[in-house]
Amino acid sequence: MAELLPGRLARLAALTVLAFVLMAAFAPWVAPHDPGATDLFRRLQPPGWMEEGDWAFPLGCDALGRDILSRIIYGARVSIFIGVVVVLIATMIGVAAGLAAGYLRGWVDRVISGLVDILLGFPYLIFAVGLMAMMGPGVLNMVLALAYKEWVVPCRVVRGETLAARETEYVEAARAIGASSATIMAHEVLPNILSPVIVVATVRIAQVIILEASLSFLGLGVQPPAASWGSMVADGRGYILDAWWVSTFPGFAILLLVLSINVASQAVRDALDPRFHD
Amino acid sequence: MTEPLLSIADLRVAFATRQGLVRAVDGVSLDVREGECLGIVGESGSGKSVTFAGVMGLIRPPGRIEGGSIRFEGRELVGLDPQAYRRLRGRDIAMTLQDAQTSLNPALTVGTQILEVLLAHGDDLPSGRARLRAARQRAVDMMTLVGIPAAARRLGDYPHQFSGGMRQRMMIAIALSCRPKLLIADEPTTALDVTIQAQVLELIASIRATLGMSVVLITHDLGVVAEYCDRVAVLYAGQIVESGPTAQVISDPRHPYTAGLLRSVPVLSHLDRPIHPIEGQVPDLIDLPPGCRFLPRCPMARTACHNPVPFHAFAEGRAARCVLAEAPR
Amino acid sequence: MRSVALLQRLLHLVPVLFGVTVIVFLMMSLTPGDPAEIMLANQNATPEQVASLRHDMGLDRSLPTRFVTFVGHAVQGEFGLSLFHRRPVAAVIAERLPATIELSAAALLFALFMAIPLGVVAAVHRGGILDRLATVGSLFGVSLPGFWFGILLLLAFAVNLRLLPVSGAIDFAHQPPGLTGFLVIDSVLAGRMDSLGNALAHLLLPAITLGLPMAAILMRVTRASMLEVLRQDYITFAEAKGLGRTRILALHALKNALLPTVTVAAIETGSLLGGNMVVETVFGWPGLGRLVVESIFVRNYPLVQAAVLLYAVTYVLVNFVADMLYTVLNPRVRM
């Protein structure tokens, strides 16, 4: 991994991502407080370093007196879960559909590509908002709403790569010795298109996390009292004049995680892309 | 004897890479006389194109001119300020590149591409409205001269609307539009098929005669040199290994590399000779040993070759970088 | 040849637009909750009244029948009654549309004016300080959650520095006479400089928030394609012709390098249209995006349906236009 992420910055980014993942996984042990525990005496309490702050609640409290740090830690679970699960589902569907379209061509390709074209006709967030409006809020619905469109991304990548791989010698050789389509796709084509798929998937996780946060911000995602970074920012909006910390810290968490993923995956891409080695 | 039009002395160009400093041109000296056609021969990576990119002032980082001198009409070009260089390029020294397909801008009409040179350099064009008209006339004249039919009607066309041979002619017309004193033709034939190759070379030769300019013909093809060049310089691994009048060099090569090249290609005047490719590969240009660079591939290597070999004259107008240069074979 | 290509692309639009319509129809027709009941909520309606409204709205017919009716109406711009406003959906949308178009256009302009010069400069000075700054900046740009960044901008420029207005599209005192509904255009038409200034001041922060991710992506695309173009022989040849640096960069290089930028800009309009909802919510912008979000919460489904369809159709058409523009810019595709 060290060669894949050249530079201190990329390593730092990878470590940050790892820290977020660990934080999410061990949230009950890491979080200082119950993320749902309200305490009206601590309503909009400032962060620890400010006057009236209390280091027991380092990032302050929200309008219901809940500990913001604990809610951010639990919110990481939602963001990372949705980001990973959506991209995982989308990648599995997209790879299968892309392989089928690119390798089998014919009517299979026409149907899949047609569906892809139609889904590409929707702006992503509009599509997700429309679906969420229909299905109602909730984590599972959000995963579905995003995955319905997300699979198009890996599908297009895989279809393109498969079309190219189809013409290469190793596939022709496999065909010549009488291997079946499924065998060729699984053993000859798939391993060769894996690296672009992985690169795309890492970048997409970052984008899905932003989309999830946007939906939650609009009130269409994760529902209270569950903590989600997007809805935390929305909750704090009304108090922005008196209590800037309520919105600021969860938003910063989104930025930090998404930026780290993007920096790390950029480094992976640079390392994999031979064009950058002049 | 009058001063040569172009005089390159001990030119050194190096490229900084991760692996180390690549000395692409390492002490090249040569002259181009007024009105002559000089052939520059070498494999790719021999430094022939880089040398003349240096003359054009087009060496870009990570490349750098490390030393030496380039004099054009007595004026030093190494270290010349960019503005003055810009005025020189395209007007006094022009260059055509290997592949006209990729050298013409696909997004601009050929008219734009030829007029812009004329307008950039045409100090003698009238000013005001007449300027564009005069430039157009010159463009059409030059396109007609290089053999583009109905030139006036083709000014609005894009490069992709031209055939391969016509594109090559167009590039030559653009290069020659300001009637330069020196034309550097970098591999003018490699991208073309054989019949068009001959046409393009004939065209350059006839225009050279018409306009009285000097031509440097960069090529890897000794056959082309034999046909069209007065003198030839052979480059190997960033150095000139042999130079002299074309006829003498071809009939009596004094460097084993030149001899090897001649054996490896059919030459029209010596078609009876059998063809043998040179064994081995061009050396890596990083950390070269001090001795002869052809040594590892040389069929006549001896101990003296491990020491630096000077490029020295051994007869009137002839020089070579070989310890055996004095002995005809 | 050119018109054939145009016709092919136009024909390709038909199935895509049809598919988009089917999906929008299904999206909303499968919605739990009965629009008729929602409309009559809080009115103590009898089941008979509900049934009668259901019949009037065509809800008692089969799905395919309803789809045909829907498409028939949609083609005429007829989307039924906005359940909440009790006015035709089309009229409510038309009222909000200019503000959204104005915001999106401003964001697009911001993105292009940021991205293209920065991308060119970064490519020309590859590896230099500006290049590194631009690269880091673009990574931030694609990583910033717009809703949060908008709030921070508000906090800094509107609340703390008091330089810019907090919310809305114009102050009441500066409201220009409404001719087109586009505040900037109306201000200019009415010769009201105060209105223009006020409208632009309101527009600035939302446009930056909305345009930033697009600017980041376009910057990277422009930089990459510029690097690719600068390696081309025709750039070397242009230099050998003794042309000035500005002409080489601005004409010879940029005209080729902008082709991918145009394509990606069209694709990224999608994030601009979706971002409308978020940014309009943050800045209290009186546009369609906020209307859609509000409508979801009051279960005003006909409006949501119409708006989603409008967004999708717009997006498809923008990409079609970009395709055409690409053809104009690229003479190799022409002929």
Automatic annotation (TrEMBL), chain A:
Residues annotated as domain ABC transmembrane type-1: 76-265
Domain of life: Bacteria
Keywords noted in UniProt: Cell membrane, Membrane, Peptide transport, Protein transport, Transmembrane, Transmembrane helix, Transport
GO biological process: peptide transport; protein transport; transmembrane transport
PROSITE patterns: ABC_TM1
CDD domains: TM_PBP2
A Pfam family hit: BPD_transp_1
InterPro entries listed in its UniProt record: BP-dependent_transpt_permease (IPR050366), MetI-like (IPR000515), MetI-like_sf (IPR035906), OppC_N (IPR025966)
Topological relation to the membrane, as annotated: Multi-pass membrane protein
Localization in the cell: Cell membrane
Membrane spanning stretches: 12-31, 80-104, 111-134, 193-222, 243-264
GO (cellular component) term, any one: plasma membrane
Main location: membrane
Coiled-coil positions: none
Family stated for the protein in its record: Belongs to the binding-protein-dependent transport system permease family.
Record's protein name: ABC transporter permease
Lineage: Bacteria, Pseudomonadati, Pseudomonadota, Alphaproteobacteria, Acetobacterales
TrEMBL record, chain B:
CDD domains to which the protein is assigned, alphabetical: ABC_NikE_OppD_transporters
An annotated GO cellular component: plasma membrane
Record's keyword annotation contains ATP-binding: yes
Membrane topology: Peripheral membrane protein
SUPFAM superfamilies linked to this entry: P-loop containing nucleoside triphosphate hydrolases (SSF52540)
Pfam families, per database record: ABC_tran, oligo_HPY
A molecular function (GO) term: ATP hydrolysis activity
GO terms under biological process: peptide transport; transmembrane transport
Main location: membrane
Compartments where located: Cell inner membrane
ABC transporter domain span: 6-262
Keywords: ATP-binding, Cell membrane, Membrane, Nucleotide-binding, Transport
UniProt similarity note: Belongs to the ABC transporter superfamily.
Protein name: ABC transporter ATP-binding protein
Automatic annotation (TrEMBL), chain C:
Membrane-spanning parts: 12-30, 105-124, 136-159, 199-221, 308-329
Alphabetic keyword roster: Cell membrane, Membrane, Transmembrane, Transmembrane helix, Transport
Main subcellular location of this protein, as a coarse class: membrane
GO cellular component terms listed in the entry, alphabetical order: plasma membrane
Boundaries of every ABC transmembrane type-1 domain copy: 97-322
Molecular function terms, GO-annotated: dipeptide transmembrane transporter activity
SUPFAM superfamilies noted in UniProt: MetI-like (SSF161098)
Location(s) in or outside the cell: Cell membrane
Annotated membrane topology: Multi-pass membrane protein
Family: Belongs to the binding-protein-dependent transport system permease family.
Full protein name: ABC transporter permease
